[in-house]
C-alpha cells in the first residue's frame, strides 16, 4: 500500500482578488464548489498558480483555512506551505495542519540554491514538525535547484509522512527514476499537464493541474481513463487539449489561466505585482482561440 492516497487530478487553484486587490472570498468559494461538483480529486491552494509568493502571511493562512472550510471534507486539500526559509515553511505547515488541511505541498527552497544535504535537512525538519502527509514539489525552473532522486528516496525512507512528489522538472526520465527507486510505494504526480498520461503509463498517480481550473470535468475524465488503463481513449481526449495546455504557458503561469478564468466570470483579471496582465495581446488572442475550441467540445466550466 502507498503511504496515503493522492491519485487523480488535483487542481492548482488560482487565488482570486477583488478589483481593490483583496482576497475575493466569495469567488474562491464558488470556484471550489464548481471544482468539487465537476469531479475533481483534490484542491491545492497557495501554490505557484495561486500566486503564493505575493500573498501576505495572513492571506496565505486565510486562503488555506477557507479552502478547507469550503471543501468541507469532500476532497483532500493539499496546502502549499513551502518556503525558502525552513522556519517559515514549518510555521505555514503547522498552521495548515491546525486548520484541517489533509496534506502539505513543499516547494524546493528557492534563491538559496541549497545542496542536496541542505534539501534533505530542510524537508526532513518540516516533515517532523507535522503529522499530516507531506508532498515534495520539485520545480527547478522556478527555484534553481533539483531534488535528485537519491534525495527523494532518502526522504521517503526517513520520514513516514513524506508520501509523494509533484514532479515539475519536465523530465519524464527523472519521474520514472523516482517511481523505480521508491518501488511504486510513493506518489508521483505530474506538475505538467502535458506529461500526465506518459507519467501514469509509467506507474505515476496523476497530476496537480493548472488546466483543470477551467475544464475540471474534462481533465478529470481523461486522467481517470488513464488510471483505469484506457490509454487510447485518454489520448484521444488529450489531443483536444494540446493547444490549450501550450496556451497556459504563453506567458508566465498563472497569467494565462487566470485570464481564462476571468473571461468566464470566475475572477477579476487581477494580479499581484510583479505578476501582471498579458504583456503581448497576441498571446491573449491565441489563448482565447484555444478556449473557443474547448468551448465547442463542452470542456469549459462557466460561472
From TrEMBL:
Record InterPro entries: Aldolase_TIM (IPR013785), DapA (IPR005263), DapA-like (IPR002220), Schiff_base-form_aldolases_CS (IPR020624)
Pathway(s) annotated for this protein in UniProt: Amino-acid biosynthesis; L-lysine biosynthesis via DAP pathway; (S)-tetrahydrodipicolinate from L-aspartate: step 3/4
Catalytic activity reported: L-aspartate 4-semialdehyde + pyruvate = (2S,4S)-4-hydroxy-2,3,4,5-tetrahydrodipicolinate + H2O + H(+)
PROSITE patterns (UniProt xref): DHDPS_1
Binding site for pyruvate: 49, 208
EC numbers on record: 4.3.3.7
Keyword annotations: Amino-acid biosynthesis, Cytoplasm, Diaminopimelate biosynthesis, Lyase, Lysine biosynthesis, Schiff base
Catalytic machinery residues: 137, 166
Site feature: Part of a proton relay during catalysis: 48, 111
Similarity annotation: Belongs to the DapA family.
Subunit structure: Homotetramer; dimer of dimers.
Listed name of the protein: 4-hydroxy-tetrahydrodipicolinate synthase
Species this chain originates from: Sphaerochaeta globosa (strain ATCC BAA-1886 / DSM 22777 / Buddy) (Spirochaeta sp. (strain Buddy))
Amino acid at each position: 500500500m502507498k503511504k496515503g492516497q493522492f491519485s487523480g487530478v488535483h487542481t492548482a487553484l488560482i487565488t482570486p482578488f477583488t478589483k481593490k486587490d483583496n482576497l475575493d472570498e466569495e469567488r474562491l468559494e464558488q470556484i471550489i464548489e464548481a471544482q468539487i461538483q465537476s469531479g475533481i480529486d483534490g484542491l491545492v491552494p497557495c501554490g505557484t498558480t495561486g500566486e503564493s509568493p505575493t500573498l501576505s502571511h495572513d492571506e496565505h493562512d486565510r486562503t488555506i483555512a477557507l479552502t478547507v472550510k469550503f471543501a468541507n471534507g469532500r476532497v483532500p486539500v493539499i496546502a502549499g506551505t513551502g518556503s525558502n526559509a525552513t522556519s517559515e515553511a514549518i510555521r505555514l505547515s503547522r498552521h495548515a495542519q491546525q486548520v484541517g488541511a489533509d496534506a502539505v505541498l513543499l516547494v524546493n527552497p528557492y534563491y538559496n540554491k541549497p545542496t542536496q544535504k541542505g534539501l534533505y535537512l530542510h524537508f526532513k525538519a518540516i516533515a517532523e514538525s507535522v503529522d499530516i502527509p507531506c508532498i515534495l514539489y520539485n520545480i527547478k525552473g522556478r527555484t534553481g535547484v533539483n531534488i535528485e532522486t537519491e534525495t527523494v528516496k532518502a526522504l521517503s525512507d526517513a520520514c513516514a509522512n513524506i508520501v509523494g512528489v509533484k514532479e515539475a522538472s519536465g523530465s519524464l526520465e527523472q519521474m520514472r527514476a523516482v517511481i523505480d527507486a521508491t518501488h511504486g510505494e510513493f506518489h508521483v504526480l505530474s506538475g505538467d499537464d502535458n506529461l500526465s498520461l506518459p507519467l501514469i503509463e509509467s506507474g505515476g498517480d496523476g497530476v496537480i493541474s493548472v488546466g483543470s481550473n477551467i475544464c475540471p470535468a474534462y481533465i478529470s475524465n481523461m486522467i481517470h481513463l488513464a488510471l483505469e488503463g484506457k490509454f487510447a481513449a485518454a489520448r484521444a481526449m488529450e489531443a483536444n487539449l494540446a493547444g490549450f495546455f501550450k496556451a497556459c504557458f504563453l506567458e508566465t503561469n498563472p497569467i494565462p489561466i487566470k485570464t481564462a478564468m476571468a473571461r468566464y466570470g470566475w475572477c477579476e483579471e487581477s494580479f499581484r505585482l510583479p505578476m501582471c496582465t498579458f504583456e503581448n495581446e497576441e498571446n491573449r488572442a491565441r489563448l482565447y482561440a484555444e478556449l473557443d475550441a474547448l468551448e465547442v467540445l463542452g470542456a469549459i466550466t462557466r460561472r
